[in-house]
Design a protein that fits this description.
The complex is a heterotrimer of chains A (about 60), B (about 130) and C (about 375).
Chain A: H1 3-25, H2 29-61
Helix pairs in contact in A: 1-2
Chain B: H1 5-25, H2 30-62, H3 64-92, H4 96-131
Helix pairs in contact in B: 1-2, 2-3, 3-4
Chain C: H1 2-17, H2 32-38, H3 41-44, H4 56-66, H5 69-107, H6 113-166, H7 170-210, H8 220-270, H9 275-332, H10 335-371
Helix pairs in contact in C: 1-9, 1-10, 2-6, 4-9, 5-6, 5-9, 6-7, 6-9, 6-10, 7-8, 7-10, 8-9, 8-10, 9-10
Classes of the chains: A mainly alpha (about 60), B mainly alpha (about 130), C mainly alpha (about 375).
Chain lengths: ~60, ~130, ~375
């Protein structure tokens, strides 16, 4: 478990939030949506590996 | 694996604080932060429980009579834990129907796992009855 | 433990009433070999060598040696040391399973209600399956004990009839033959038709009871009712047969005595010259028949003791293992599993009672046989 993981996710969240704010104020609403989706995909990509590790570990521990 | 309780507390508090802040700024990112904190802490729990479960499995394996039954019970506990985790994640994401369906699937899998045990018990009893002449 | 101790005391008391004398060398009755052939191997191993001789002298001294209290104690000690290993292994396996159930119970707090119930169900099922699986060999051993008892007593009936007839106890021979055959058949029917099926049904009910989750009614009441019926039927059958055998033998011995006196009077007064010699020789025949009867009676009791004591000790040790593991289960908080273990221990208690009752019934019958005086000699 790496403490930096959660900081990365929080960091990505804040970056997306700020970018969305700026893009919204400059009138580029379509790009706001893309930025949010990209941010969510990036976070999910980070999370999937961890969830997979968790489930595999439980599976190995309990014998299946 | 060396676990520092202070690190765990720090991880949990940072995750909770980050989720709270992101709820105000960008609501969509509160869930990933919550999930990250949950998954991270659970991974640590499972790694910590590893030696305990392995020792228990070795202990149960010493008895030839209890060993097979114990393996099935451990698997059932594993299925129950995974199902619970998955259903909690689904509820967190706001889809309780999927969570309920997953739990149902988990229960059915546990029942399927118990079928060999039930079958063995019933076969033994019918064998005893036929042996006694009934 | 108290019941087992009382049973051993009763056996020793029966044996102490029967004293064996000595006489000139004489052969054992003709069907004695069949009786020896019916003795199971594990019982034959603990008997002295002279038991298997054809000469009454050697058999009498061997039977006298085997009938001593120290011999009984020796059999009990061997049974304990032999059965302890299997009882300990049973206890260890049960404790391991209970520890697993406690682990499941503890992890159930972190699972949701129905998943936790499912995990508890599987852990209870695992314990129930293991417990039921272990009974196969043990119930088979109990069935084998009753079968061996029947075989031995069946083989003793012709020997007893011959000895009754040679002592002039004609009525006793007829009554014994009929009563014993009836008793053996009834015991066979009670064991195969009532005791063993009832024990298995109680086991199945105990298993079903332990698997219940939620507020389902308990099945232990049905189980208790079945056990009470078994105890009542076995107790009644044993009491009736013991009383019947005792009364019938007393009456038959009296009528045989009258018949023998008549024979002696006729022999003494009607046969010329040798009439009194013939009459007196009846006493000699009676004395040697009495010895043979005591020998065979005590031999039968010794065989039954050597057969029943290891079975009782094994059942008692198994019962103790179940009670001990139930106590451990109580400490670990496995309530469903503890219920099952206590029910199974109770079933073993009833099996012990039935085994002891049938053995004592036959011991009583053999005692009556050994102590019934010869008609020809009791004048």
């Amino acid at each position: 478990m790496d403490v930096t993981l959660i900081l990365k996710v929080i960091g990505i969240g804040f970056i997306v939030a700020v970018s969305a704010q700026i893009l919204g104020k400059t009138g580029r609403d379509e790009q706001v949506t893309f930025v949010i989706i990209a941010g969510i995909v990036a976070v999910i990509a980070l999370l999937v590996g961890e969830i997979s590790t968790l489930f595999t570990t439980i599976g190995e521990l309990f014998g299946f | 694996m060396e676990i520092n309780t202070l690190k765990l507390c720090g991880f949990a508090i940072v995750g909770a604080a980050g989720a709270m802040l992101l709820r105000e700024v960008r609501r969509e990112f509160e869930l990933p932060v919550r999930l990250t904190a949950t998954v991270g802490l659970l991974t640590v729990c499972v790694l910590m429980a590893g030696p305990i479960v392995k020792y228990a499995a070795e202990l149960f394996g010493l008895s030839p009579i209890a060993g097979e039954a114990a393996t099935i019970v451990l698997r059932a506990v594993g299925i129950a834990m995974l199902t619970r985790l998955g259903s909690d994640f689904c509820r967190d994401m706001g889809v309780p129907s999927v969570a309920a369906a997953l739990e149902t699937a988990g229960k059915i899998e546990m029942l399927l796992l118990s079928l060999p045990l039930l079958s063995t018990a019933l076969d033994t009893i019918s064998g005893l009855l036929s042996q006694s002449g009934l | 433990m108290k019941r087992l101790f009382v049973f051993i005391l009763a056996l020793a008391a029966f044996l102490s009433f029967l004293s064996l004398g000595t006489s000139a060398s004489e052969a054992m009755p003709p069907d004695y070999d069949n009786f020896l052939g019916a003795i199971p191997e594990d019982v034959a191993e603990v008997l002295p060598d002279g038991f298997f001789s054809n000469e009454a002298d050697k058999v009498t001294s061997a039977v006298g040696e085997a009938a001593g209290v120290d011999s009984l104690i020796d059999i009990v000690i061997k049974a304990f040391t032999g059965g302890m290993g299997s009882a300990l292994s049973l206890f260890a396996s049960l404790v391991v399973l209970l520890a697993l159930c406690a682990l499941v119970g503890a992890s159930g707090d972190s699972l949701s209600g129905s998943l936790s119930d499912g995990a508890s169900f599987i852990s209870s099922l695992a314990v129930a399956t293991t417990v039921v699986g272990l009974q196969y060999g043990r119930f088979e051993a109990v069935g084998a004990y009753f079968a061996n008892l029947r075989t031995i007593m069946t083989s003793l009936v012709p020997v007893m009839s011959v000895l009754y007839l040679s002592g002039g106890n004609v009525s006793s021979a007829a009554i014994t033959n009929t009563t014993f055959v009836l008793c053996l058949d009834l015991i066979g029917i009670l064991v195969t038709g009532l005791l063993m099926p009832a024990a298995i049904v109680c086991l199945a009910l105990a298993m079903a009871d332990s698997l219940q989750i939620g507020k389902a009614p308990s099945l232990s009441g049905v189980s208790d009712m079945i056990k009470k019926v078994i105890t009542f039927v076995f107790g009644l059958a044993s009491t009736l047969f013991a009383a019947s055998m005792g009364i019938q033998n007393v009456l038959a011995a009296s009528s045989d005595g009258v018949g023998a006196r008549t024979v002696k009077y006729v022999a003494g007064n009607m046969i010329p010259v040798l009439g009194s010699t013939v009459a007196d020789s009846l006493r000699t025949v009676a004395a040697s028949t009495k010895l043979l009867r005591s020998t065979v009676g005590v031999a039968g009791i010794v065989i039954i003791a050597a057969l029943v004591l290891p079975t009782l000790v094994s059942l008692w040790l198994t019962r103790l293992a179940f009670f001990a593991s139930a106590a451990v289960g109580d400490m670990l908080g496995c309530s469903h599993e503890v219920k099952l273990l206590r029910q199974v221990a109770s079933i073993y208690g009833y099996l012990m009672g039935a085994a002891a009752m049938t053995a004592l019934l036959f011991v009583f019958a053999l005692t009556v046989f050994a102590l019934t005086s010869s008609a020809a000699g009791g004048i």
